[in-house]
Amino acid sequence: MQYDSIRAIQWQGDRLLLLDQRKLPWEVTYLECRTAEQVADAIRDMVVRGAPAIGITAAYGVVLAAQQHYHESPANWQEAMRPDLDVLAASRPTAVNLFWALARMQQVMASNPAEPLVTLLKEAKSIHDEDIAANRRMGELGAALIEAKAGVLTHCNTGSLATGGFGTALGVIRQAWSEHRLNAVYADETRPWLQGARLTAWELVQDGIPVDLIVEGAAAALLRSGKVQWVIVGSDRIAANGDVANKIGTYSLAVNARHHGVKFMVVAPSTTVDMATPDGTAIPIETRNATEVLSLAGQPVAAKGAGAWNPVFDVTPAELIDAIVTERGVVLQPTREKMQAMMTQM
Ligand code: MRU
After folding, report:
1. What is d(CA 153, CA 233) in angstroms, rounded to the nearest whole number?
2. Tens digit of each residue's pLDDT (9 = 90 or more) over 92-137
3. Residue with CA at minimum distance from ligand 1 atom 9
4. Regarding predicted confidence, which is higher, 298 or 196?
5. Pocket of ligand 1, candidates 18, 49, 272: which has the most ligand atoms within 8 Å of its Cβ, to mutate?
6. Quick one: which atom of ligand 1 is closest to the CA of 313?
7. N or C: which end of the chain has fewer CB within 10 A?
8. Taking Cα atoms as reference points, which of 244, 240, 247 lies closest to residue 274?
């Protein structure tokens, strides 16, 4: 499809190539991974990021671990892989897609397939393909909610870079743009990693979709201006009651959107929904190093001696959300009962 040209995760022969997102938009380079440890490092260090992309990458990490241990110790390769699985699981805590993908790969291992390497690679590729298919479906469902000539604001990066391809919130924006529904696309720069400025803007420019960046502090004024009808974001974990964890700043946007009568849409595949987490208070929120706040692109920007608080996700309560869009359907004004019904339907 037009407006969808980027693929950040690529399996080639017996190795994994990851578009190095730390270097975008200045450099387009791929990092090669041959071991699960390299994959875990890449996830932790933000070479690859975004909940669905983290899950897919970890699944390929399991394939790399299996390749290594099946050759080194064919008799007990599954046992030998345990530390690799632990290292992958410890790479980032909030995106539940990571744990979902590892569990799915372990289920395949537990079935003792006759040709484990072929079967595990096939599974990782299915996880990857299913994610792209889910994104396309969510794109259609989410775009259908947007009235003609709307303006939208998005946060962080939820596009091809953050998923198998196409994107979640950015997939809805791609689809809505292709259907000529949008007047304007705004993106938050998204401090401290600048996923909006560096990644979302890069993706949209690559695909010929006009975008205007705003600093986070401009969001309330933009929402008040009448230029935006929907705030559209992704998620790292959606609790059973519809509370949503996403990039820090999302909660602030949801409060602001409600205050100004702007609608708020969360777009995420069902692999991001965690029915075992009862509500947002139980979602583990990653805190990263203070230096990420105290510097910008490696350059110190804060007064020497200042500290920083750097939680990288926040939780938006379900009552501030107008629509949760998954590939299984749309939940309007989410509640525990509606989430349960959506997750049990096929
Ligand atoms: O810290 P990041 O860049 O991994 O955070 C990513 C986000 O918060 C995204 O909004 C979320 O993972 C959804 S990606 C489709």
Report:
1. 8
2. 999 999 999 999 999 999 998 889 999 999 999 999 999 999 999 9
3. 50
4. 196
5. 49
6. 8
7. C
8. 240
